[in-house]
Design goal:
It holds the Pfam family HTH_26. InterPro entries: Cro/C1-type_HTH, Lambda_DNA-bd_dom_sf. GO terms for molecular function: DNA binding. By secondary structure, the protein is mainly alpha-helical. It has a single domain, classed as lambda repressor-like DNA-binding domains (434 Repressor (Amino-terminal Domain), Orthogonal Bundle), CATH 1.10.260.40. It starts with a strand and ends in a 7-residue tail after the last strand. It has five helices and two strands, in the order βαααααβ.
């Protein structure tokens, strides 16, 4: 089981660059990049709320639960 971050998809749908989002929510581009590339172990709810506010979306639009396949065990 894993959580996949689809931040890049939402950015593309909103025609927004990572740099613009970082400036809008007050995070560094590098910090957002680690979220976008799914290299973080967790995201603060406050950060997720800011992202959703700026992108006008729901947390489920950004985060996706993916079930393991039998091959991944």
């Amino acid at each position: 089981m894993k959580i996949v971050v689809n931040l890049d998809v939402m950015l593309a749908k909103r025609k927004m660059r990572l740099k613009e989002l970082a400036a809008a929510i007050g995070l560094t581009e590098q910090a957002l990049s680690t979220i976008k590339t799914n290299k973080v172990k967790g995201v603060r709810f406050a950060t997720l709320a800011k992202i959703c506010q700026v992108l006008e979306c729901q947390p489920g639009d950004i985060l996706e639960f993916v079930q393991d396949t039998p091959d991944e065990d």
